[in-house]
Specification:
Strand 13 and strand 14 (about 405-410) form a beta hairpin. It is built from 14 helices and 16 strands. The chain has helices at about 1-25, 40-55, 75-85, 105-110, 135-160, 160-170, 175-180, 195-200, 230-235, 240-260, 265-280, 285-305, 310-325, 345-370; strands at about 30-35, 60-65, 90-95, 100, 115, 120-125, 175, 190, 205, 210-215, 220-225, 385-390, 395-400, 405-410, 420-425, 430-435. A 6-stranded parallel beta sheet has the order 8-5-3-2-1-11, sandwiched between helices. A 5-stranded mixed barrel has the order 12-13-14-16-15. Strands 4-6-7 form a 3-stranded mixed beta sheet. The chain is an alpha/beta fold. Helix 10 packs parallel to helix 14 and helix 13 packs antiparallel against helix 14 (about 345-370).
């Protein structure tokens, strides 16, 4: 047995090493990473992990396949700094067809050592966007100037069209792939990654370690997708998904309140809220919206235990809708290059109606059913009267509801033939007390 266990451990270690080696890029390979969706701290951590892997294993270059509407300024700046200081060439490729690199995506594209786009893609529209906030002209000019200075510095460092980059910030301009190539905003247009790598083979780029000649033609590709946890968190950082998780948590929590006991509803509510809070940590939120949603939850819960459930439930819809609309609309101006984040109004209407209908219909029925006396088993006998078949001193037998039961008196001793009333159940015995005759 010891030899068998030793051999098993050796085999498992060998297989693990083989898997690790298969996942680790060999020297001279090109690592392909993909960022699709909103730019947030998770995408910044993902790029940092990929660049560290490329440097550790001496990969020849990193390709960042990009399709984004923009994102948070802090995450965008972190990613720009990573690419500007990367010791490994970073090739930003806006793909596939129909993809975009707008708002923060423009900054990331210009920061790459090589900037390329697939046909039928577009880039630009990088004017600072206040997320639901009303800002004055002075604040708007400060935000715009800050973003314009940043994009000029990036484009100048990479030898690209800094003048158009500033116009994209100040005037919210956008370009197709062909137009961007013609104006010198990007370096290449290619309909596939393989063709792009063939087109840029031999190009000289300057990294943090100095000038490098790209050797990309025929180089082996090593794809490094997000891990399962990273993909999950990246998906739930979509405002609609995060809001859906919050609404689902509210719905399940109300179900748990209506029928307590840490059932599937309680566990599901906890999971939904944990995932929602993980998503909210990567999104700009308005705490006034959160407070309004909590107030709505309190009113929905109160409605379950009052006789005016319809009125209170309808009243709860007001803070619920207002909180939903304000959830991703901070009162302060948003950073430069932030995308317009908001919950779909149709989703707000659907979830508000669903929660109200569920509260008035299903949960109310569950609550009423839980208050009814038991309809089966010994519990249904509580409160009913019967007759003592033997003396109860204190144990004996009684007949209740045409059934004979073992019973024990919880008061004085009961004589055979006396009327008794069931007051509780103890195991398989009824606890009874005598029914005193009226005066």
């Amino acid at each position: 047995m010891k030899r068998f266990l030793f051999c098993l451990i050796v085999v498992l270690c060998t297989l693990w090493g083989g898997v690790a080696a298969a996942q680790s890029p060999a020297q001279g390979t090109i690592i392909v990473a993909e960022v699709k969706g909103v730019i947030n701290p998770l995408t910044a951590n993902y790029l940092d992990r990929v660049l560290a892997l490329a440097e550790r294993d001496q990969a020849h270059a990193v390709v960042l396949a990009l399709d984004t509407p923009g994102g948070l300024e802090t995450a965008m700046r972190d990613m720009v700094q990573m690419m500007m200081e990367a010791p490994v060439p970073v090739i930003v490729y806006v793909a596939p067809g129909g993809a975009r690199a707008t708002s923060a995506g423009l900054f990331l594209t210009l920061a790459g050592h090589v900037a390329a786009m697939a046909p039928a893609t577009h880039i630009g529209a990088a004017h600072p966007v206040p997320l639901g906030a009303e800002i004055g002209d002075v604040m708007d000019e400060k935000m715009t100037s800050d973003a314009a200075a940043l994009i000029r510095s990036i484009a100048t460092a990479r030898g690209r069209n800094a003048e158009w980059g500033e116009q994209a910030v100040r005037e919210n301009l956008s370009l197709t792939a062909a137009e961007a190539l013609e104006l010198g905003v990007i370096d290449e247009v290619a309909d596939s990654l393989e063709r792009l790598l063939a087109q840029i083979d031999g190009r000289q780029v300057t990294t943090a370690r100095g000038d490098v000649a790209l050797r990309t033609l025929g180089a082996p590709l090593q794809r490094q997708p997000m891990t399962l946890v990273e993909r999950l968190i990246h998906i739930i950082t979509n405002p609609d998904i995060a809001y859906l998780l919050i609404s689902l948590g509210v719905l399940l929590l109300l179900a748990e309140v209506a029928d307590p006991g840490l059932t599937v509803a309680g566990v599901g509510s906890a999971v939904a809220f944990i995932l929602a809070f993980a998503a909210l940590g990567s999104l700009p939120i308005n705490w006034a919206g959160v407070v309004l949603l909590l107030l709505a939850l309190l009113l929905f819960a109160v409605a379950l235990f009052t006789d005016t459930e319809a009125i209170v439930t309808i009243a709860a819809l007001v803070p619920f809708v207002l909180g939903s609309l304000l959830l991703f609309a901070p009162f302060t101006a948003s950073p430069p290059a932030a995308p317009a984040l908001r919950v779909n109004p149709w989703l707000i209407g659907i979830m508000g109606t669903s929660i109200a209908a569920f509260s008035l219909g299903v949960l109310r029925a569950i609550l009423r059913a839980s208050r009814l006396p038991p309809q089966s088993g010994a519990q249904r006998l509580i409160g009913r009267q019967g007759q003592a078949l033997t003396d109860l001193t204190p144990a004996g037998e009684v007949r209740v509801d045409l059934e004979n039961w073992s019973a024990v008196s919880v008061g004085r001793e009961i004589q055979k033939g006396e009327q008794v009333q069931v007051v509780a159940i103890s195991g398989v015995r009824l606890q009874v007390q005598p029914v005193e005759p009226e005066a």
